[in-house]
């Protein structure tokens, strides 16, 4: 048995149990704060928001994880300065840690602030850069999505599998509208222009982690977005992979923690999506 298999086999059950416990506890608390938060701050711009609920949720999750695993490393959205440079640097500092927890305490903060009920808690555990456990929890629908590397992905305890649409014309695709007007927004608009006429329709729910969970559950055929961070993607990427789907960057490189421009699909439409995004100059 390899070193990595051994450490996973020894610890996997408790890792996953802790991830689920954290996501469920934080999610239930977030739900009680809907329409009830007191502090709203802008980070970079009016499109980049944070509340005391984001910070409280992250503190709750961090404390619980550190109680169980004090030697593990932790990367959470609220512990990092806003902007892509700070995110890339923060990831670089911890990405090769033996055990790294990657946490988005509220994915879909804009929705939370507006009372639009589509947001989630995203928690992943990576071992030397490889994601072993991914949990995404939607407190409004009480849906818990869980994946373990090599063991499949589950929602409500039922095994998930991706959808079987094989053509763009029968595909329901999600994307997100990035806040960065200089680099990410123009790419996103080019991608939209290319894809809207070709796919069945486009959705933009506002939580990347939930979009990935929906690809895993077969509710979306694919999802792409420009300019995301490891905490938006790492848990959901494992959900998709363990449900039989495919996750790469928008150039086709396999998913790794540093991916910011993501394409996740049921696998069948992956090459067609890559081709359209690259032909449109929408990939990077
Ligand atoms: P958040 O709610 O945790 O910030 C929606 O398009 C996706 O983009 C969400 O997952 C959202 O995560 C993320 N997002 C929103 N503002 C962002 C920003 N300023 N930089 C990077 N990602 C952002
Ligand atoms: Ca997020």
Structure characterization notes:
It contains eight helices and 14 strands. Strand 7 (143-148) and strand 8 (152-155) form a beta hairpin. The chain is α+β, with helices and mostly antiparallel strands and 284 residues long. The protein has two domains: 3-159, 2-Layer Sandwich (Fructose-1,6-Bisphosphatase, Chain A, domain 1); 168-279, D-Maltodextrin-Binding Protein, domain 2. The strands form three sheets. Strands 3-4-5-6-7-8-9 form a seven-stranded mixed β-sheet, with helices on both faces. A five-stranded mixed β-sheet has the order 11-10-12-14-13, sandwiched between helices. A two-stranded antiparallel ribbon has the order 1-2. Helix 1 runs antiparallel to helix 2 (52-68) and helix 6 packs parallel to helix 7. The structure holds adenosine-2'-monophosphate and calcium ion. Residues 77, 104, 107, 231-232 line the site of calcium ion (CA).
> Major sheet: order of its strands?
3-4-5-6-7-8-9
Uncertain ranges: 1-13
Number of strands: 14
CATH class of the largest domain: Alpha Beta
- Backbone CA Rg: 18 Å
Q: Which structural class best describes the helix and strand composition?
A: alpha+beta
| Fraction of residues in H or I helices | 25-40%
- The CATH topology of the largest domain corresponds to Fructose-1,6-Bisphosphatase, Chain A, domain 1
Q: Which small-molecule ligands are present, each listed once?
A: adenosine-2'-monophosphate, calcium ion
- Overall domain count: 2
Average predicted local confidence, pLDDT: 94
Number of helices: 8
What is the molecular shape? Answer: globular
* Main sheet summary: 7 strands, mixed
CATH architecture of the largest domain: 2-Layer Sandwich
Please report which band the strand proportion falls in: under 5%, 5-15%, 15-25%, 25-35%, 35-45% or over 45%. 15-25%
The ordered H/E elements are HEEHEHEHEEEEEEHEHEHEEH
């Amino acid at each position: 048995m390899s070193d990595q298999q051994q450490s996973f086999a020894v610890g996997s059950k408790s890792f996953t149990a802790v991830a689920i416990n954290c996501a469920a506890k934080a999610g239930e608390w977030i739900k009680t704060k809907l329409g009830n938060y007191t502090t709203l701050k802008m980070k970079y711009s009016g499109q980049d928001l944070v509340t005391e609920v984001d910070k409280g949720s992250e503190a709750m999750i961090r404390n619980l994880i550190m109680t169980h695993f004090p030697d593990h490393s932790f990367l959470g959205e609220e512990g990092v300065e806003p902007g892509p440079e700070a995110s890339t640097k923060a990831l670089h500092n911890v990405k090769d840690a033996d055990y790294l927890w990657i946490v988005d305490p509220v994915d879909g903060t804009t929705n939370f602030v507006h009372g639009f009920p589509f947001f989630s808690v995203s928690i992943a555990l990576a071992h030397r850069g490889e994601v072993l456990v991914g949990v995404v929890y939607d407190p409004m629908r009480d849906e818990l999505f869980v994946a373990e590397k090599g063991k499949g992905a589950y929602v409500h305890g039922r095994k998930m599998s991706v959808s079987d649409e094989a053509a763009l014309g029968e595909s329901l695709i999600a994307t997100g509208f990035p806040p960065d007007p200089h680099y990410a927004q123009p790419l996103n608009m080019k991608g939209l222009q290319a894809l809207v006429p070709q796919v069945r329709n486009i959705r933009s729910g506002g939580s990347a982690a939930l979009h990935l969970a929906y690809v895993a559950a077969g509710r979306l055929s694919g999802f792409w977005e420009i300019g995301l961070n490891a905490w938006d993607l790492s848990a959901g990427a494992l959900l998709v992979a363990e449900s039989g789907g495919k996750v790469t960057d928008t150039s086709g490189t396999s998913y790794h923690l540093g991916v910011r421009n993501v394409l996740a699909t049921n696998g069948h439409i992956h090459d067609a999506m890559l081709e359209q995004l690259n032909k449109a100059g929408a990939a990077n």
